[in-house]
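Ticket reopened. Same input as before:
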Amino acid sequence: MIEWLSGGLFILGATLSLLAGVGVLRMPDVFTRMQASTKASTLGLGCLLVGVALRNPEFAFVVRAVSIAAFMLLTTAVAAHVIARAAARSGAPIWKGTLVDERPRQMTGPDSN
Amino acid sequence: MPSLPFLAALAMLAIAAGLTFIRLVKGPTLPDRVIAIDLIGVLLVCLLVLMAGVTSQQAFLDVAMVVALISFVGTVAYARYIEREGS
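Engineering reply: fixed in the latest deploy. New output:
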């Protein structure tokens, strides 16, 4: 039973990672590609870690799995924000189908915060 | 010993890494390439976690944590470089 459950979680996590790869290849824009790649590191890796913790219910595995999940949840947001700010500052082209562009006119000025 | 879900997950992770590598090669701007490198690091962490689950070796989880940390530091360093130099 546990084997089947963790196997399903492995398949689910790998499928989400595959979708992230397809999204990074197929999305039209830096900013949309970024939101596709964030799926793999939060939900995909989370499913894989839950599968590992179910298959090996020992203290060492569960502690490491929880700490890896917490670390990735913290750092993914920071990394995506930093890359998005750098892309907007360096004048990366935005997709022409974007409806709302909230970037100010001079994105290349010094940061205020 | 290698079960069917493990092999399927391994194949999907490999295909995802290949697709990301295509974006890394042909990405038009430098932030695209940084995103691709970041995603390849995350896929490497996923692969290590999968190996830890199948082989029941907890050393794989330690390696996965170290790879995640180094990948984060590298991504932030690349972003600072882009911000200073422009793409």
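The helical segments of chain A are 2-26, 30-55, 59-89. Chain A has one domain: 2-89. Please confirm and we'll close it.
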